[in-house]
Amino acid sequence: MTALLLSGCVVLCGCRTTYIPPSGRADFSAIASAGASLRESFAAAPAAVFPASIVAVRVQAPRYRSYFTEREGGVFGQGRYAVVTVSEFEEEADFQRLARLPGVGGFINLSRLLLPQTLESDRELREAAARLKADMLLLYTLDTSFYNHDASIALNVITLGLSPTRRVFVRATASALLIDTRTGFIYAAFEANAKRDLRTNAWESREAADRARRDIERTAFNDLVGEFESHWPLVLQRAKQGA
Prior knowledge:
By secondary structure, the protein is an alpha/beta fold. It contains seven helices and eleven strands.
């Protein structure tokens, strides 16, 4: 009897595969301003030496989790934010592309071994970057949300394999800050968005849904790289002028 009940449950529930979207973005306003007064923020000045070496670090909300990181790991730190050390959507070619810009001396990988367990502000990351002799710190974060067909109600759980008429909107926003390692001066802020309208019957599994999610994040991040490229001449100008 028990076996029949379990078999029936598999038949009835097998098509009800669910997918949980990833956690949220890091709060840049809290990270960059933590412990700094208004006077200190205004007093900060650019001090990078060119060609500037840059450490790129992805940060997310505290206790960040996604379907990908639940399997692969790569989330580190407690406090105001978490550092993600595994590549969900980034490619080495992205940073090689930026490294070819005039005035960029290359990108450096940041090891979690250089970070404290508790992460409260950009200071912990700048101290780690300083130990690597990096002139700048590129912080970036992703905010990915799933919405129902009218794009108004955010979804915390998505049921997969439903009617072909069931649509879900996925929006990804990639944001970044370029910060002076020595002083905390913010050279620039960047942002890029991507949106896609997907039908849930195309997602036969959590793996398929997560690939779709990471493809959209990939698009947003690629556009963010383009924003960095277009703003870089202004960064050089601000650094030259000392403000």
